[in-house]
Specification:
globular; alpha+beta
Length: 98
Amino acid sequence: MTDVQKWTAPQEGTIKVNFDGAIKAKDAICEIGVVSKDWNAAVLGALQTPVKDFVDPSGIEAFAAFRALDFAKEMGFMHDIAGMGCSGDYELNQLSFT
């Protein structure tokens, strides 16, 4: 069983972009998800997309991070990066923008 982490709001005036990648190894299916919320937990945008040709967890997580940055740029959030968060050993899973 894995620990469930509760979403925490960013500082007022900041947008948080969370992302993750997942692999269903037996079917060779990979997907990434990205969601952006403001300090009031209002969803500003989200995406979910399948990804081809990834079979290792670090590769899909790196691609999810790249896609999250691209998504933030598309949404106009890339003024200043206020912070990046990590959970686990090296799992980057959030970006914050002011």
